[in-house]
UniProtKB/TrEMBL annotation:
The lineage of its organism: Eukaryota, Viridiplantae, Streptophyta, Embryophyta, Tracheophyta. Belongs to the drug/metabolite transporter (DMT) superfamily. Plant drug/metabolite exporter (P-DME) (TC 2.A.7.4) family. GO terms for molecular function: transmembrane transporter activity. This is WAT1-related protein. Its main location: membrane. The gene is WAT1_1.
Amino acid sequence: MAETGPALARRMRWVPDRANLHIAMNVFQFVYAGNHVILRTALNMGISKLVFPAYRNIIALAMIAPFAYFLEKKDRPALTASFLVQFFLLAFVGITANQGFYLLGLDNTSPTLASATENAVPAVTFLMAAILRIEEVHLNRRDGKAKVLGTICSVAGASIITIYKGPIIFRPSHPLNQSLPSISLGDAEGKNWTLGCVCLIGHCICWSGWIVLQAPILKKYPAQLSVSSFTCFFAILQFLAVAGLIERNSQAWLFHSRTELFCVLYSGAVVSGIGFSIQLWAVGKAGPVFVSAYLPLQTLLVAVMASLALGERFYLGGVLGAVLILVGLYLVVWGKSEEGKFASRKAVIPSVAESSPSTNNRKSSVFQPLLPTSSK
């Protein structure tokens, strides 16, 4: 079974921490890129919008919980009523409301629109983190300007890929899946498009809030896999409670095809199990703005995979959007790096000033390990 989050990081000690973060976020975006198509396929087959997420989180919990129990015995603080309330609220915002809004919005619109609306998550996350003072933004310094400009570039690049095509610059002659039968994704005819758009906006707000709220919780409870396990557990209880009241048809709880089973396994094991554990680990390491800045990369990955695997044409808009996304990511990462250097210099200077001959019997605070920027 694949290792997740912190476990994977421990196995990669020879890789620099900064490289680990970039690898982890690229993996997360890659596994999540196909989720729009996977979920829409499941909805088109008639799977229940309440039963599906319940099963999805059951699979995720079964996958994460053993790793959390054995790998985080020493890192896991004592469980208190306060932590349980925080995990319950985190589950409601980040999983129950988030996935519920997304499924209802996707069912009433289209995968393209669902992917496009998620491009607003970095901007909303940045705004929330700045208002709550979880992410410091110094507009009078280069790092603050770089983070703001990088977020804008990433959102703009993903939006260009979605709304602007331009001339064809790449036309694959042999799609990789030309022998596979096509799957109809539907066009949401007969659905409530306005309701779908409102739900997708709610999904973006919930996802942003989830990313932002993870940072202060991880400071108090520094066990990423355990936090993920508890949130999945409470989300399961919440979905089962709602589904038990609304979904009275017993057939809705059964799998009617291998495709339905595959969709649930992919969303549960890959997206929720591996993907969200990676997200939690990255939030604890680099903060919510860094994690959300990678989200527009998903739109680029979907465009590339659709071109190579499905034989879809690649347009000039995709190239322009890709350039803006990469520039935006670079600016955010550079800004975080400069912010860390500034914090290190600020921490070292007072330590040197406070040192005196009378403290020879103690270690100077200069040699104490510096806290990472994400622990602000």
